[in-house]
Amino acid sequence: MRQQRSTTSTMAIPSHVMTMWSAFSLEQGGIPEERFYEAFGFGDSPALADELGQLVLSGIKRATAGSVWSYESSGKGVPKPGDLSVVTDSNDIPLCIIETVQVDIVPFSAVTEEFAATEGEGGWLSGLLASSACRVLQQRMRKHRSLV
């Protein structure tokens, strides 16, 4: 079920994050542009992008989830370990660069408390139905059942 991106196609690094990407690459001694996966803000609203971006910066949010369908339909495919993404706020201002270190594809019903804790939104499984992440996922999961 896992869809791999072609190793020959590279997402173009958007101009609004290029300064951060270039500085990070220089600091790391050079990063191949093929490792760039995407620039994005978390969530489905400006307020959520800002809130979740701050949780990433503080180290509380260390994981995320999305439907397999959403990754496949985006044309980017499922991220893979080593991919780098630029997290932005609601104004598309880059906040940080994150690295994908692990990708697990599991049924929605198999999400563990351990994973939920790394998602950093507090009481994720126990308060799942009230969460903004769940509302977004529920809309997408009506037709598709696996999470990345």
Please count the beta strands (DSSP E, at least 2 residues each): 5
Structural class category: alpha+beta
> What is the share of helical residues?
25-40%
> Which range does the strand content fall in?
5-15%
Shape descriptor reads globular
Order of helices and strands: HEHHEEEHHE
Main beta-sheet strand count, sense and barrel state? 3 strands, mixed
The first-to-last residue Cα distance is 11 Å
| Low-pLDDT runs | 1-8
Over all CA atoms, what is the radius of gyration? 15 Å
Whole-number average pLDDT? 82
Number of helices: 5
What report would you give on this structure?
With 148 residues, the protein is of the alpha+beta class. The protein contains five helices and five strands, in the order αβααβββααβ. Helix content is 33%, strand content 14%. The protein has a three-stranded mixed beta sheet, with helices on both faces. The chain starts with 14 loop residues before the first helix and ends with a strand.
